[in-house]
Design goal:
This protein is an all-alpha fold. The protein has a domain of about 55 residues. It has five helices and no strands. Helix 2 packs antiparallel against helix 5.
Length: about 120
Amino acid sequence: MTQGPDDQDQPTPPPYGQVPPPPPPPQQGYPQPGYPYGASPQAPYGVHPGTGLPYSDKQKLVAGLLQILIPLGIGRFYIGDTKTGVWQLVVTVLTCGLGALWPFIDGIVILATDSKDANGLPLRN
């Protein structure tokens, strides 16, 4: 039994009782207007490449410099970590300024590491 050219052009029907799969959606070659490559409304500042978490709206440089230049826990208040900010403020006041070493070192740590804000999102650069 030979098959002619007409038999090869016909798609094979699905097995009995199964519905054929829907056709694939049309592909769009360009991203949506207003969103650059990879940006989305859920991650307006981008996504951290290591963890996949969206970046925070707070900046690492601002938080670190506030901690270093004003060593009263102001940088911690900026990123939303008010508990640590209050502790740093209280320690600095109660030790007559000697406790300002803690926020100063904390500012260096914020700048040197992948710090997170109060919501657990990584600070953006």
